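Bench notes, afternoon.
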Amino acid sequence: MMIKNRLTALACVLTLLASLAGICDSAAQSYPTKPVRLMVGFGTGGGADITARIVGSKLTELWGQPINVENRLGAGGTLAATIAAQSPADGYTLFMCNIATHGIAPSLYKKLSYDAVRDFTPVLLLGITPNVLVVHPSVPAVTVAEFIRYAKANPGKLSYGSSGVGSSPHLGVELFKYMAGVNLVHVPYKGGGQSGVDLVGGQIQVLITNLPEQIGYIKAGRVRALGVSTLKRAALLPDVPTIAEAGVPGYEVTVWQGICAPAGLSRDLLQKINADFIKAITSPDTKQRLAEQGIEAAPNTPEQFAAFIQAEVVKWAKVVKESGATAE
């Protein structure tokens, strides 16, 4: 009798679990049933913002629900990351994680209010893009080598902007300073858009920043491109050499953007969101729009993205240590 009761109880439990699994699967398939918040840690006009809005517009079409891009500026993107990490893991708050928040910040900040690995569910890598070294036309240099010579002859007299302390434009220049042996003064901004405007206006003289932010200014001749940060030339700037080939051997910074959710996202929802984002970024029109901004679509699985983030944390810890950069 006791065995029969236990078997009956077990059957009830299994039935309940099957029922709950069915409910979860149904919820994932019907997702989203309301607007989705996509948080971006940098200002409008920056590389992360551009990517978010291009992909978000396509997802709005696919989902029939708006993707509300929310820009929360501050602390190199870590303020937005903290808010996202503390949000419910229900799929309705997603975060544009990137090289700054999930590669550089873990070693740049002595006290970080989130763990880049533990507090997030990696969804997928969206795209990668080079940074570009650009200078104001008043700077008497048309090559990376000439710029280095000029900077060495004028130590501490050239200012460079960034989209915030801990961003790739910040640490990318710090790495450049370390490898090239030059002294440049950092001027942090709350987003890449304003630093680009000030470079055009001559308030700062140098940027190593996302190509999408600068391509318009470069083509208009308002700033001068000296080199790109990746190890291969950018398709949008085929005549511009890499920084490595033009004077700083071994220099490489690849900017990436991805989607992360708060830790605890259900497996069903994770798979659904991953698949839908892949549909969005590989659609011909979206892929073309990204390419026009210098962004190469690079979708992958949640597992691949998780491994990628862990490798980035290790890589940038070494760079931060070697450069001596700090956010505090």
